[in-house]
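Thread: quick sanity check before group meeting

JM: Hey all, I'm pulling together slides for Thursday and realized we never actually wrote out the predicted structure for the chain we discussed last week. Dropping the sequence here so it's in one place. If anyone has concerns about the input, flag it before I start.
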Amino acid sequence: MSTTQERTEEQDLPYDVFSRACPSRGTLEHVTGRWGALTLGALHEGSFRFNELRRRVDGVSEKMLSQTLHALERDGLVHREAQPSNPPRVDYELTPLGREVAGRLIALIECLEGRMDEVLAARERYDARRSGPDATA
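JM (edit): ok, ran it. Output follows.
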């Protein structure tokens, strides 16, 4: 079988994020990592300049936000618009694909925020069991 035929057959296979070689795995990491998820969630609110976005995503360093934005832009989720002005103005916004992905993330975020009382109670129960007299190492 020629290399061209092999590539064609591989391209016909569906993507499988559970496969180590699948390119969707990298994108999933970009989207679901702490800074990727928070950046997409923030951009779901609208367009931001870099420093506005950095303030919105509390705790992210300039370096991490820059790396995150580059990865999300490369994956086609974020659009970077550089304005020819002095000083330079750069705006970030979601692409149509980014809006779809961010919408799904927002649903997850809202679910978690709405159920945090249950999560915190579960943590307390877990911690009490782990530190109680019957706890095992």
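AS: nice. Residues 1-8 have pLDDT under 50 and may be disordered. The beta strands are 48-49, 78-83, 89-94.
JM: adding both to the slides.
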